[in-house]
What we know:
mainly alpha, three-stranded antiparallel β-sheet, 3 strands, 215 residues
Amino acid sequence: LKTRYNIISLSLKKIIQTNQEVKDLLFFISLLDSQHIPRDLLDKYKGETLISKFIYHLKNFSLVSTHTPNLMVPVSTLSLHSSTQEVSLNYLLDILSSKEKSILLQGLTSTLEAYVSNVLLQEDTSKARLLIKHYEKLMTHNNWLPDLVRGQLTNQWGALYICLKSYDKAKNILETNLKSLKKYGRNNENILADTQIYLGIINYEQGEYTNAKTL
């Protein structure tokens, strides 16, 4: 296990040396589900040119595979072995400062928010289904995600279930988030407002019009 960690971490170190922004991308994909990470999500984060180079270097070290769109997964994606992803995350958590992690997490959250907003606007249920598993993986990092970042990501997760009309699942996620957010004071008012808006939409769709209006 230690040998595997050393081999992968050495490869990652060499890739990072090609461009420091690669470190941001590695952190991004290490937090998501290891399978079928949407290519256009990464493009939104860092732009197509850098992503093409990033994938090229990862392939050179046999760390990633790419997939063309198909009936099950309607967008181009990339995947990596779960153990490779785990090593990558542990390596990055070791070399990143607290300030770097904070900046990267905010960038990740903002990118996902913009991507999810587009999915909701287009009512793209195929992409919503694909993203759900990535949010499920993000939530497994619950123990070290900052509270407000977790609150933002949880709102996005709930919104995807609204897109899929899975209102009970969305309601459970968002009501739990609402309770948590109320503990954090005035620093999270925008996030709290989003939570209540989404819960209002759910209540409206379920015919609970008084609750929807209150929210």
